[in-house]
Specification:
By secondary structure, the chain is α+β, with helices and mostly antiparallel strands. The chain has one domain. It contains 2 helices and 3 strands; from the N terminus they run H-E-E-E-H. It has a 3-stranded antiparallel β-sheet, with no helix packed on it. A hairpin with a 5-residue loop joins strand 2 and strand 3. The mean pLDDT is 81.
Length: 89
């Protein structure tokens, strides 16, 4: 069975010169300007795996935010914005 990291390596372009740390860790780190970096985390949650299908939208959103903020904290990053990743059937 193909691993998550093998899929990422196979289907996504190689990092650019601005990429400090590509995805595969808790977050990706990208150089913006000298002395300025952007740390991005975008973990998605799946119904039935990461939350119960009858959980409230508030609870699901809370958990989704907590999971991604935890990734940023692991990278010693300070959160400034929120991104949203949605998967539809």
């Amino acid at each position: 069975m193909t691993t998550e990291f093998e899929l990422i390596q196979r289907h996504f372009s190689p990092p650019t010169r601005h990429t400090v740390l590509a995805g595969g860790d808790d977050a990706a780190v990208i150089d913006l300007d000298p002395g300025s970096q952007l740390v991005v985390s975008a973990d998605m949650l799946v119904a039935g795996r990461h939350f119960l299908v009858d959980d409230t939208p508030f609870d699901i959103g809370y958990k989704a935010l907590a999971v991604n903020l935890s990734d940023l904290a692991a990278m010693a990053a300070r959160p400034r914005w929120v991104t949203l990743a949605i998967a539809l059937p």
